[in-house]
Amino acid sequence: MFVIEEALAVPPAYIALMDEIMTAAFNPKRVMNHCHELPPFTGKKMLFLVISHYFHLLVALQYMMMDVK
Predict the structure, then answer these.
(1) Which of 21, 29, 32, 44 is the most exposed place for a label (fewest CB within 10 A)?
(2) Could you give the CA distance from residue 38 to residue 30 in angstroms, rounded to a whole number?
(3) CA angle 47, 7, 61 (to 5 degrees)
(4) How many alpha carbons lie under 13 Å from residue 32 in its C-beta half-sphere?
(5) CA angle, 13 as apex, 8 and 15 as ends, to 5°?
(6) How far is CA 21 from the centre of its chain?
(7) Following CA atoms 12, 16, 18, 20 in sequence, which dihedral angle do they give, to the nearest 10 degrees?
(8) What is the pLDDT of residue 52?
(9) Does the pTM of the predicted model rise above 0.85?
(10) Residue 41: CB partners within 8 Å, gap ≥ 6?
(11) Cβ-contact 41, 2 below 8 angstroms
(12) Are residues 51 and 8 in contact, defined by beta-carbon separation less than 8 angstroms?
């Protein structure tokens, strides 16, 4: 599985380029799937994380409020 953090910060052109690079690396013969299509990201599992800055702030505040000894 490939994880892309802060996916909203990545321009769409870079995501398309990642798809092309992964296809060249993991599917150089360009084998089609059962629907006769080239699978996106070579059929690998992708996880695009979209974490807002508010979430990071909330985690930081919770950590600061914890009784760390």
Answers:
(1) 29
(2) 7
(3) 95
(4) 4
(5) 60
(6) 14
(7) -170
(8) 67
(9) no
(10) 2, 18, 19, 22, 23
(11) yes
(12) no
Cα distances from 35 to residues 12, 16, 51, in angstroms, run 25, 21, 33
Round to whole Å and give the CA distance between 38 and 33. 6
Question: Residue 21 and residue 1: Cα distance in Å, rounded?
Answer: 16
Q: Please provide the size of the chain in residues.
A: 69
Residue 52 token pair: 């807002």
Q: How many CB atoms lie within 10 A of CB 42?
A: 19
Contact 6, 50 (CB under 8 A): yes
